[in-house]
Recover the amino acids of this structure.
C-alpha cells in the first residue's frame, strides 16, 4: 500500500518536474486550453443571466382574475375561497372594483374621462401570485380558474414566459454542442502535448518496460501530467470568465443606470467553477490516456 | 527454475528464431548458451525472462507459465529476472546511480531503501565511486557493469545476460565473468549467452549449443 502511494507521489512529482522543465510551453498550452474552455463557459453565463433577468420580473408571476360585472359579494367570497384552495396560488389579493377605479384614476391620464362616467366600468378582480413560473403549471391553473363561476377573464403573460424559456433552452442546447466541440479540441491539445513528451521519453519508456514496468506504470506520470495541465487550464478558464464578466458588468452598470433595470451578468458560482476545473482536468487525463496508450501500442508492435 | 517445452518463436516477419526447443535450467544452475550470431540465443534469453512470448510451446519460469500470464503479470515477472542487455540499454540523460535505481522506482521502493540498495549494487560491481557519473563518461566495461548493477539491484533469483563479454577486452571480460561466478556461488540462477566460447571458458557451467534455432547437441555437463 505504501509502495502504491509512493508510486503515485513519484508519478505526480515526475509530471510536475516535466511541466516545470518547459515552463513556457506548459503555460501556453494551459492558456490555449483555458481560452477554449472560457468561451462556452462565458456563453453559458450570459444565457443564464439573460434568461434569469427576463424571467426574474416574473419569478413570482401574477395572474389577474377578473369577475363579471354582475358578480355579487357572495360570488366574490366563493371565487376567493376557490382561488385560495388552489395549490398554485401563493397569495391571493382581492382588488374591489371601487379601489381599482381609484387606482386607475390616480395613475393614468384617464382621470378626466373616468370622472364623466356614471358608473364604474371595472369589475372586481383578484391578483394572484403563483408558486411556479413554469408555463405548463400556469396554463393549467389558468384553465382551472377560468372555469370558476362568475369569472369573466384570466390574464397572465404565459406565452411570453414560455417563449423566453424555450429560447433559453435552445441557446443552452446549442452551447452544449459548442462546448462539446471545444472539449474535443482540449483533448487534442493535451493529447498532442503528451505525445511529444512520450516521444522524447521513448528510451526511458522502452527500458522501463523491459525491466518490468507495467502499462499502468508507464502511463501514470503522463496521466498526472494531463491532470495538472487540465487543472491549471480549468482554473485559467474560470479566471478568464470571471474577469470578462467583471468587465462586462462595469460597462453594463453605465449602460443600465438610465433605466430602472439593474441587469447584471452573474458570476460563476463555486460549484460551477469547481465543475469547470474538474471537467477540464478530466479531459486532460483522458487526453493523456489516449495519447500514451497509442504510443504504448506502437512500442509493443516495434518490440 | 526455467523450463522450455517444445518452444517455437516466429517473428511477425515470418522469421523463425527458435524451433522446438526443450530445455531445463535448474535453480542455482549456471548455463551458457552458445552459438553463432543469429542462432537464436537472444531470442531464447528474451523468452526466458518474459520480454517476449513464445509462438508455440510453453515457457515456465519460477513455476509460472508465461504464455498464460497477462501483460501486467508478465511485466511484474520481469522485475524478478535481472536482465543484462547486449546493448546495455542505459539511460544517458541521468547519472549511473539513477540508472541503477530505475527498477526500484518502478517497484515503488522508498528513497532511503533505494539509495542503500543502489550503493550496494554499485559496490558489488566496483562502481561505487561512479554513482554520480554520467554513463557516457564510463568505459565499455564499466557500462556493462552498470547494466549488471541495475539487473541485480532487485536481488533477482534469476540473472540473464546476453553476450555480456562481447566487445570487451580480455581483462574487462575477465572481471565480468568473475562477477557472474560470484552471483552463481550465492545461489543465483545464471543464464548467459556468447558467440565466443573462449571468453567464457573459465566460467564453467553447463553449455547449451544453438544452431539455426535448434538445440545442436545434447547439453554436456561440465564443472
Amino acid at each position: 500500500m505504501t509502495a502504491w502511494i509512493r508510486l503515485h507521489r513519484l508519478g505526480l512529482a515526475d509530471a510536475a518536474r516535466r511541466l516545470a522543465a518547459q515552463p513556457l510551453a506548459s503555460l501556453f498550452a494551459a492558456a490555449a486550453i483555458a481560452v477554449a474552455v472560457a468561451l462556452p463557459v462565458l456563453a453559458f453565463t450570459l444565457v443564464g443571466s439573460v434568461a434569469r433577468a427576463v424571467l426574474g420580473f416574473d419569478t413570482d408571476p401574477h395572474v389577474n382574475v377578473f369577475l363579471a360585472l354582475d358578480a355579487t359579494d357572495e360570488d366574490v367570497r366563493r371565487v376567493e375561497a376557490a382561488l385560495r384552495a388552489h395549490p398554485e396560488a401563493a397569495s391571493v389579493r382581492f382588488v374591489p372594483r371601487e379601489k381599482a377605479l381609484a387606482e386607475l384614476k390616480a395613475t393614468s391620464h384617464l382621470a378626466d374621462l373616468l370622472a364623466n362616467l356614471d358608473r364604474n366600468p371595472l369589475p372586481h378582480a383578484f391578483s394572484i401570485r403563483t408558486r411556479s413560473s413554469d408555463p405548463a403549471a400556469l396554463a393549467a391553473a389558468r384553465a382551472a380558474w377560468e372555469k370558476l363561476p362568475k369569472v369573466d377573464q384570466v390574464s397572465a403573460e404565459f406565452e411570453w414566459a414560455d417563449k423566453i424559456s424555450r429560447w433559453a433552452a435552445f441557446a443552452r442546447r446549442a452551447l452544449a454542442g459548442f462546448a462539446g466541440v471545444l472539449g474535443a479540441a482540449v483533448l487534442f491539445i493535451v493529447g498532442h502535448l503528451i505525445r511529444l513528451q512520450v516521444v522524447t521519453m521513448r528510451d526511458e519508456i522502452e527500458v522501463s518496460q523491459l525491466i518490468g514496468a507495467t502499462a499502468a506504470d508507464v502511463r501514470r506520470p503522463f496521466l498526472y501530467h494531463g491532470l495538472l495541465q487540465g487543472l491549471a487550464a480549468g482554473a485559467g478558464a474560470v479566471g478568464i470568465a470571471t474577469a470578462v464578466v467583471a468587465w462586462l458588468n462595469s460597462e453594463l452598470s453605465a449602460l443600465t443606470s438610465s433605466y430602472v433595470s439593474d441587469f447584471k451578468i452573474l458570476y460563476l458560482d463555486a460549484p460551477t467553477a469547481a465543475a469547470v476545473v474538474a471537467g477540464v482536468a478530466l479531459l486532460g487525463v483522458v487526453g493523456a490516456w489516449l495519447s500514451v496508450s497509442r504510443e504504448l501500442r506502437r512500442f509493443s508492435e516495434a518490440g | 527454475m526455467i523450463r522450455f517445452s517444445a518452444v517455437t518463436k516466429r517473428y511477425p516477419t515470418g522469421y523463425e528464431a527458435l524451433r522446438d526447443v526443450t530445455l531445463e535450467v535448474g535453480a542455482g544452475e549456471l548455463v551458457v548458451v552458445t552459438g553463432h550470431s543469429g542462432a537464436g540465443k537472444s531470442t531464447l534469453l528474451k523468452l526466458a525472462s518474459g520480454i517476449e512470448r513464445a509462438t508455440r510451446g510453453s515457457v515456465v519460469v519460477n513455476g509460472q507459465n508465461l504464455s498464460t500470464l497477462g501483460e501486467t503479470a508478465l511485466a511484474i515477472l520481469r522485475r524478478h529476472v535481472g536482465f543484462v542487455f547486449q546493448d546495455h540499454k542505459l539511460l544517458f540523460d541521468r547519472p549511473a546511480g539513477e540508472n541503477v535505481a530505475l527498477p526500484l522506482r518502478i517497484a515503488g521502493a522508498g528513497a532511503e531503501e533505494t539509495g542503500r540498495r543502489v550503493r550496494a549494487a554499485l559496490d558489488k560491481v566496483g562502481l561505487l565511486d561512479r554513482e554520480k557519473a554520467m554513463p557516457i563518461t564510463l568505459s565499455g566495461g564499466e557500462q556493462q557493469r552498470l547494466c549488471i548493477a541495475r539487473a541485480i539491484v532487485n536481488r533477482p533469483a534469476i540473472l540473464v545476460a546476453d553476450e555480456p563479454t562481447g566487445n570487451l577486452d580480455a581483462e574487462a571480460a575477465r572481471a565480468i565473468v568473475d562477477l557472474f561466478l560470484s552471483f552463481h556461488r550465492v545461489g543465483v540462477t545464471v543464464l548467459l549467452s556468447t558467440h565466443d566460447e573462449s571468453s567464457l571458458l573459465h566460467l564453467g557451467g553447463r553449455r547449451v549449443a544453438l544452431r539455426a534455432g535448434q538445440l545442436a547437441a545434447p547439453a554436456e555437463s561440465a564443472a
Q: What stands out?
A: DSSP finds ten helices and four strands in chain A. The longest strand of chain A covers residues 89-95.
